[in-house]
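From the methods appendix. Each design record in this collection lists the tokenized structure first, followed by the designed amino acid sequence. Records were kept in a plain field format so they could be parsed without special tools. The example shown here is representative of the layout used throughout.

RECORD:
FOLD TOKENS (891 positions):
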């Protein structure tokens, strides 16, 4: 463990321990029992709650908890403090109930004040619940229930005391507090302090004498005469060289060097007081010497200790080193193996991306307006934590891929150099520079397949050139991919700067991809099946639920699959349950169009430009402005003082188009005008063909997300350019921001089903939805009348359509071919008549080659015309019953 991290943990544990002690000291029962007035704890209600539960569990032994916490924290700073940390922590955990039992056996006469202050009589005495369960009074036999005294029932008071003492000693032994060693050091320190410096020196000399081999003299071989060969294997020491340069005095004894053995060295190192100031450096040199000998090197670094050291500790093998010959502290000499030049490696590539923004702290869950029932936003703890990443493997992969890119272009005679690389969760962006200033950029484009063959991967994309840069970007998939989770993106999102925040994922350099639906203002999501489209849709819904309450945003969800959005039913953000019946989807869109018109009318009367300015006015100002126009809020049906934003989410738009093509008109009308009215549309489709994503749809949905598609033509339909056909799938996407033509590649955020369910359950627990029944009732009228007012009611005044209905009942036949021949109209017109009759509920669906079934009678047709306010002349045979005119005929 890192030394700095260990110290940080120790300081944090000490702070927590002090806080617990303060909570215990200032605890009183009236802080948690609802007394009036309530007492105050130094750590507030949380401290009072913690102190109550800890004291009620362990009693007076709870004081051990902060002591043990601080001790475990500071033990990490020792040299081997964390090697036996699990065993020590387990022993301390077991020691708490044991001490509770011992404390429970203490007489209560000396703790009366504490018993009264903490109300421990009610908490079963000094030992709390655990002490009472171990050695509390045994229940009388007449009581059927068992109450306390597990040990006392079988061992009585004396046996329980003996067992608890033995268990406490065993736990202390497992903790390894080195109590005896500490007592010995304290005794030596006291004795040295009493005897003074002389006593301290004598104490050290006594220890040196007990070492035995510490005072042993080193064997010194006499210097051979001139011309005489030295003994083999003998290297002259530095002492011999110095003695050779000095006249030899016969009576003088040669200076002897102190020596020691490895056992004595280990014993001295373990003794803290005997270690000299440079012991750590000396041990490191000895370790290097032993490694050098083990690897077969002939020389190693072990410099001689200066003579000023009180107790020199020199290994006998150190005499053979060059450092010993020179008497200086020289670095170790490298062996022949170390002198071999290493294999050339590429320098680490600089990152081309700006550093990730500092995570913004997510605001605390806040309550909404009082009339919304006090809605609280979901906490971020509902989401999973961020997985760890291995940066070492990532750097190695970046360098090898950069070399492969340069060699691939070199094989084709193009000189490029990789100048930067930025790694994202799934894609790494490599920036290359052209070696020749006169080379065209177009020559580099089109090398995706060659690079894919060289690198053995797919999904490579070349961006030539990068926006606002003088380099060309190459996006290469990573071998080791990382998941983009929701939690870290939520923590980095400042929702106060956005109206409808959408969390999309991360781009190729790892920066968050965030969007504001209110500024888009509508979004198109396309992609083949299984590429991540549904996960993206759920992520956008969850991101809105995480940051906005039901009084701020409402949803209208259209789900042709019937199961994709069914889980969001009953959340308070819904205006209507998820619509799975496609015959009602058109009615809901028509209701949204009418709501848009009503809101624009209210905005015009109030004199503001958009919904945001309207909501900021307040009730008094709105009523004042309406009064100037002679209006009141009651005169404006469906208009409130504060109107929420509305998000219309349509899943599988292509399936909806197959059922009823009239929905395209409603979608186009919404996307053209609904931005200022606070209505925003999100469309998803798995069939991005030209007949589904038409030009009008694309022009009114400037923000688009495209996952992997089948071919380049589908990519051009969605993004107006190719590239989506080369994506990897599984969340790999291209994002076209609003107001920009530069595509952004990224990895969509992955939201687990458990996270979605947690967010939905939290929303459901905050309140029930208030469904607008006008949508359902207006929907029924809309389906009967073809959309009510507006673009879906042209059939009311279309006489040709009335002739088609008369012919259908007269001849009991229907179909486009029948209408085309009978009415002498074109095929498209005849087809529209058939679809209109199906929308109105007069014709059943097509069943193979058989004729459509007529579902309603002629009287129903007449009643429908009267309900729409249509009038006719009584003599007009077009509106006479065919049965009264001679019965149902045959063609």
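DESIGN:
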């Amino acid at each position: 463990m890192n030394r700095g991290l260990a110290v940080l943990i120790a300081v944090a544990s000490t702070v927590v321990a002090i806080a617990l002690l303060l909570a215990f000291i200032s605890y009183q029962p009236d802080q948690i029992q609802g007394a009036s007035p309530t007492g105050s704890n130094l750590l507030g209600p949380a401290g009072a709650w913690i102190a109550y539960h800890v004291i009620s569990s362990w009693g007076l032994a709870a004081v051990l908890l902060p002591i043990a916490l601080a001790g475990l924290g500071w033990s990490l700073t020792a040299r081997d403090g964390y090697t036996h940390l699990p065993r020590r922590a387990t022993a301390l955990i077991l020691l708490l109930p044991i001490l509770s039992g011992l404390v429970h056996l203490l007489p209560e006469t000396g703790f009366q004040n504490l018993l009264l202050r903490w109300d421990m009589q009610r908490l079963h005495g000094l030992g709390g619940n655990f002490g009472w369960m171990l050695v509390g009074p045994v229940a009388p036999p007449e009581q059927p229930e068992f109450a306390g005294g597990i040990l006392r029932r079988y061992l009585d008071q004396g046996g329980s005391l003996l067992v608890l003492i033995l268990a406490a000693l065993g736990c202390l032994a497992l903790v390894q507090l080195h109590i005896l060693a500490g007592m010995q050091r304290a005794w030596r320190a006291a004795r040295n302090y009493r005897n003074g410096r002389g006593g301290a020196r004598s104490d050290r000399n006594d220890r040196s004498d007990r070492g035995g081999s510490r005072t042993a003299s080193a064997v010194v071989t006499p210097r051979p005469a001139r011309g005489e060969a030295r003994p083999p294997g003998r290297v002259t020491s530095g002492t011999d060289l110095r003695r050779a340069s000095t006249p030899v005095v016969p009576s003088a004894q040669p200076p002897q060097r102190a020596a020691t053995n490895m056992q004595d060295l280990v014993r001295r190192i373990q003794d803290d007081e005997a270690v000299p100031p440079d012991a750590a450096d000396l041990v490191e040199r000895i370790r290097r010497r032993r490694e050098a000998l083990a690897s077969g090197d002939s020389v190693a670094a072990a410099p001689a200790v200066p003579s000023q050291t009180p107790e020199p500790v020199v290994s006998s093998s150190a005499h053979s080193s060059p450092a010993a010959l020179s008497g200086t502290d020289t670095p170790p000499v490298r062996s022949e193996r170390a002198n071999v030049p290493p294999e050339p490696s590429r320098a680490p590539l600089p990152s081309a991306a700006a550093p990730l923004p500092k995570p913004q702290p997510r605001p605390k869950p806040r309550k909404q307006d009082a009339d919304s029932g006090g809605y609280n936003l979901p906490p971020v703890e509902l989401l999973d934590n961020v997985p760890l990443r291995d940066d070492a493997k990532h750097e190695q992969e970046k360098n090898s891929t950069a070399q492969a890119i340069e060699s691939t272009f070199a094989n084709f005679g193009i000189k490029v150099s990789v100048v930067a690389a930025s790694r994202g969760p799934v894609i790494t962006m490599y920036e290359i520079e052209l070696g020749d200033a006169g080379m065209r950029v177009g020559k580099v484009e089109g090398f995706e397949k060659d690079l894919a063959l060289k690198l053995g991967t797919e999904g490579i994309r070349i961006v030539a050139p990068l926006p606002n840069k003088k380099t060309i970007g190459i996006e290469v998939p990573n071998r080791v991919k990382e998941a983009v989770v929701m939690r870290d993106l939520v923590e980095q999102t400042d929702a106060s700067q956005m109206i409808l925040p959408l969390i999309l994922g991360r781009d190729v350099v790892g920066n968050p991809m965030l969007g504001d639906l209110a500024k888009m203002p509508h979004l198109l999501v396309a992609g083949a099946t299984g590429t991540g489209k549904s996960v993206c849709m759920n992520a956008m819904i969850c991101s809105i639920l995480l940051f906005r309450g039901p009084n701020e945003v409402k949803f209208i969800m259209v789900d042709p699959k019937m199961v994709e959005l069914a889980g969001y039913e009953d959340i308070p953000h819904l205006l209507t349950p998820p619509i799975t019946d496609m015959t009602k989807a058109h009615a809901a869109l028509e209701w949204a169009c009418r709501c848009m018109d009503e809101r624009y009318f209210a905005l015009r009367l109030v004199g503001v430009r958009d919904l945001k300015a309207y909501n900021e006015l307040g009730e008094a100002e709105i009523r004042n402005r309406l009064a100037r126009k002679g209006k009141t809020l009651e005169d404006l049906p469906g208009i409130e003082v504060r109107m929420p934003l509305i998000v219309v989410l349509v899943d599988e738009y292509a399936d909806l188009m197959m059922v009823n093509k009239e929905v395209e008109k409603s979608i186009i009308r919404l996307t053209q005008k609904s931005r200022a009215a606070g209505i925003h549309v999100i469309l998803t489709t798995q069939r991005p063909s030209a007949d589904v994503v038409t030009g009008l749809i694309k022009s009114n949905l400037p923000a688009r997300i495209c996952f992997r598609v089948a071919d380049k033509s589908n990519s051009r339909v969605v993004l107006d350019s190719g590239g989506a056909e080369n994506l990897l799938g599984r969340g790999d996407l291209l994002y076209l921001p609003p107001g920009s033509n530069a595509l952004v590649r990224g990895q969509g955020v992955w939201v687990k089903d458990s996270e979605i369910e947690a967010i939905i359950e939290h929303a459901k627990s905050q309140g029930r939805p208030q469904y607008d029944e006008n949508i359902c009732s207006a929907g029924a009228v809309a389906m009967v009348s073809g959309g009510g007012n507006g673009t879906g009611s042209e059939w009311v005044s279309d006489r040709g359509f009335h002739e088609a209905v008369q012919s259908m009942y007269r001849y009991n036949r229907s179909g486009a071919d029948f209408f085309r021949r009978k009415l002498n109209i074109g095929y498209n017109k005849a087809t529209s008549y058939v679809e209109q009759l199906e929308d109105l509920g007069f014709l059943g669906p097509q069943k193979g080659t058989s004729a459509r079934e007529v579902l309603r009678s002629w009287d129903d047709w007449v009643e429908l015309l009267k309900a729409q306010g249509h009038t006719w002349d009584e003599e007009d045979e077009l509106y006479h019953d065919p049965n009264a005119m001679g019965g149902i005929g045959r063609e």
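APPENDIX NOTE: The chain has a mean pLDDT of 75.
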